[in-house]
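Can you make up a protein sequence with its backbone structure tokens?

===
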Amino acid sequence: MSGSHVDASGCYGDRSVRIDVLESPEGSLWVVCLFHGVYGVASLEEGNKYGELARRLSERGITTCLVETSRDVRNRSDFPDRTDWAVAAFAGKKYGQELFDHMSGLSKVSEIFPDGRICLWGFSLGGIDSLMIAGGVVEPVSDLGLDVPPVPLDRIGALVISGSGDTLRSDSSIKTSLPVLSSICEAEVLREACRNVEVSSVDFFYGSEDDTFDEPSCRRLFDLIPVSNRHFTVIDGADHPFRSLDGISSTKPLDLMVETVSSHLQGHPGDWPR
């Protein structure tokens, strides 16, 4: 199953937002726009989590676009240590620049699929960005003096948030000293974005073994979203990246999320246009 590739404008490092597109063979009413977590790599390569999600969604008749944000270097495989990779790729990048990149990627996706209903699916920081975008909060971008990319809010019909909360665990292993996290907006700004969300459906997923956010921090965001068709699913034994179950590498968390999301998208299309 092959895909195509396009680029959008980025605002840091190589100035490129890379988008891998995997279209459903029979066409798709929905277009899922996947946002990776902090320091993430998103591609259609075998073994890449986001590529695996795209293939599963395509098999269920849903087109998927993987959005990989701008960075200084992209050769993740050359860095055995995750911290060394993060510093090399994102040393000077601020949160507003990461949000810009996701907005730019979404803008490009909306151009490629002008008639598609868009579902934003974000992991960790990508989930936070999804909520900020859907809630119309753009100050982290404009405060940096960047032009805000045009985002089709009226075409975002669904949100899927995987492992995103409003407060990191005190013992989180995430390196918060790099600017992309140290410059992130206050939690109340994110909460206000949640209050502004207007979509047809919302799915939140939380892994019970998440070592980055605790469940209350995720539920606080979920509870603020004024959407009646919403679901909060705890996946027992899943870790923060949703790549293991009870400490053992497993695709079951991905399978469960895809099954749930595809069922909700296909079963609850919502009013269109909104």
In short: The mean pLDDT is 92. The chain is about 35% helix and 20% strand. Strands lie at 4-9, 16-22, 30-35, 63-68, 117-123, 156-162, 201-207, 230-235, 244-245, 248-249.
